[in-house]
Design goal:
It contains 2 helices and no strands. The chain is an all-alpha fold. The chain has a domain of 53 residues. The N and C termini lie far apart (85 Å).
Length: 76
């Protein structure tokens, strides 16, 4: 048996994981997956405003490329 000052078996702030397939578990997994994707892209530590600016730039480039492709097809 442990003495009075020994470390407790369970932390006082223990939190159970949500059940598999529940909405809470799915939300937690999606959050972790988004973080992993951002880490792979090198933006894991970027601020929210930096992510937003890069996202807007990427969206504008994609829309511009689609419009250029449609314009190219209509003239040829």
């Amino acid at each position: 048996m442990g003495s009075k000052g020994s470390k407790p078996r369970k932390p006082k702030q223990s939190q159970h994981l949500p059940k598999v397939g529940s909405a809470t578990e799915n939300q937690r997994l999606q959050h972790a997956e988004r973080g992993a994707v951002l880490d792979n892209m090198g933006m894991g530590n970027a601020s929210q405003s930096t992510r937003m600016i890069i996202g807007i730039i990427v969206a504008v480039v994609i829309v511009g490329a689609l419009l250029a492709l449609l314009g190219w097809n209509t003239f040829h």
